[in-house]
Amino acid sequence: MRDLVYYVAVSLDGYISGPQDQFETFLVDGDHMAGITEDFPDAIPTDIAARLGIDQSGGRFSSVVMGARTHSMGLPDMPSPYRHLEQVVFTHRDLEPEENLTVTDADPVEVVREMKRHDGGDIWLCGGANLAAQLRGEIDRLVLKRQPLLFGSGIPLFAPSDYDPVRFDRVSAQDYDSGVSITHYVPRG
Fold this sequence. Notes:
single chain, 189 residues, alpha/beta, Dihydrofolate Reductase, subunit A, two-stranded antiparallel ribbon, 5 helices, 10 strands, 19% helix, RibDG_C, Dihydrofolate reductase, Riboflavin_Biosynth_HTPR
């Protein structure tokens, strides 16, 4: 069975982007990038990986799910940012059809459960906070790229919601001289 992996960069104060949707302040240079391109080459947009000569064929993901706001971060330059993966965007808005991109307003939990039943690599939960909150019970692995910066406000890792606490256990961590720390967690029980 495929796992749903919430793999995301997050600030020290728990935001996946700043108050004006800033995500470009996350470090993309430094010693942590070698680990990222080795372990998660398929989580780099298709065109950027091609420009950098990164081989995405051995990655762990075969699908990526995201909310409309996360998808819109690359528009108009990258309307289909992860063409090497099956892409699913959850939204009620109309979006132009693009290569290897499915747009749906279906229940994310039902869609992800159906995706998990099919063969393939893991499913990457790319963002955002609302989708992560809806899928919190389906997350099989949480991989945080903790960045050494503070936003003060912005889009949180998970949107506020009334739900029971979910306990995670740390299974591995790697600290880099850049100040970035990549930590893997799995749900307890």
